[in-house]
Write a structure and sequence with these properties.
It is a single chain. By secondary structure, this protein is an alpha/beta fold. About 35% of the residues lie in helices and about 25% in strands. It has 10 helices and 13 strands. A 9-stranded mixed sheet has the order 5-4-1-6-11-8-12-10-9. The longest helix is centred in the last third of the chain and has 13 residues, at about 275-285. About 40% of the residues are buried. The protein binds uridine 5'-triphosphate (UTP). Uridine 5'-triphosphate (UTP) binds near residues 11, 14, 56, 108 and 112.
Length: about 290
């Protein structure tokens, strides 16, 4: 099997929960303190061995491409002023990493976004998909773990986490087989089940390693009632065709596509910084 070296970043969603900010800024550029969500996701991918980044963008937004462009004049200025800490912040992407931008055209769902990457993936190749708005803080790189499990047997692999009962109806939930350490074969995925009928506590989150065969499945996947092609529907089909396995996330995830998740992610990171930690504590004591 070919080494997994390509990652797809679907960044073409409308981000309606963050309007009006998302009128001109893709939600993946919203920062956790000073670093955009997409930058965290790209760093995770590169650390996991990814060499080609494929961004599926909404047609009118160039801000993500701008974010990863070099700024030679400002960089030279910081270098001449010996401000190495600022130079480091400007270097958002190593030069050897290839990046490709593909417009989604219309926001017809996550499955439709992933389908746009088809021409970039070879027949026998597996690739990663990262949803940058699922912000993860973990002791080890979550994508690297997913890739290791996928490469060990060549099967599609998704990431899941234990979800609180009252939130389970917002997730695709897996029916797992027998766990082997942190991974398991998936028997079924139920989309947004009632808490009472959920087949497990494990909800699907935004890290996937998929085979090239997913594109044939996605191109046959019917639109849902909201006129979107859902990746989960294609994954259900993939279970029947090739099998699917899941890896349990060991870490903390924040759903930064929702306002509470985004604020908590900022708080979580801020509390790890000595100075910010102090200021937040004294603010909370006073209010
Ligand atoms: P969401 O389900 O969070 O949708 O997308 P959204 O449109 O971005 O946000 P809301 O619900 O309107 O607030 C999950 C991921 O899939 C991408 C998003 O950019 C996000 O990373 N996505 C979604 C696309 O790339 N294209 C789409 O058509 C839909």
């Amino acid at each position: 099997m070919k080494k997994i070296t390509k990652a797809v970043f679907p960044v073409g969603g409308m981000g309606t929960r963050f309007l009006p900010a998302t009128k001109s800024i893709p939600k993946e550029l919203l920062p956790i303190i000073d670093k955009p969500l997409i930058q965290y996701a790209v760093e995770e991918a590169i650390e996991a061995g990814i060499e080609t980044l494929i961004f599926i963008t909404s047609a009118s937004k160039h801000a993500i491409s701008d974010h990863f462009d070099p700024m030679p004049d400002l960089r030279a200025k910081f270098v001449s002023q010996n401000k190495q800490h600022l130079v480091k912040k400007l270097d958002t992407l190593p030069l050897e990493i290839q990046r490709v931008f593909i417009p989604q055209g219309q926001p017809l769902g996550l499955g439709h976004a992933v389908l746009q990457a088809e021409a970039m993936i070879e027949d026998d190749e597996m690739f990663a998909v990262i949803l940058a708005d699922d912000f993860i803080q973990a002791e080890y790189n979550p994508l690297r773990r997913l890739i290791a499990v996928a490469e060990s047997n060549g099967r599609a692999t998704i990431s899941v986490e234990a979800v609180e009962r009252q939130r389970i109806s917002s997730y695709g939930v897996i029916a797992p087989g027998q766990w082997q350490g942190d991974h398991v074969s998936v028997n079924e995925i139920i989309e947004k089940p009632d808490a009472a009928s959920a087949p497990s506590e494990f909800g699907v989150i935004g890290r996937y390693v998929l085979p090239q065969s997913i594109f044939a499945v996605l191109s046959q996947t019917q639109m849902d009632k909201n006129h979107e092609i859902q990746l989960t529907d294609a994954l259900k089909e993939l279970i029947q065709l090739d099998g699917l396995q899941a890896v349990k996330l060991a870490g903390q995830r924040f759903d930064c596509g929702s306002q509470d998740g985004f604020v908590l992610a900022n708080l979580h990171v801020a509390m790890q910084d000595g100075d910010l930690n102090q200021k937040i504590r004294s603010y909370l004591t006073e209010h």
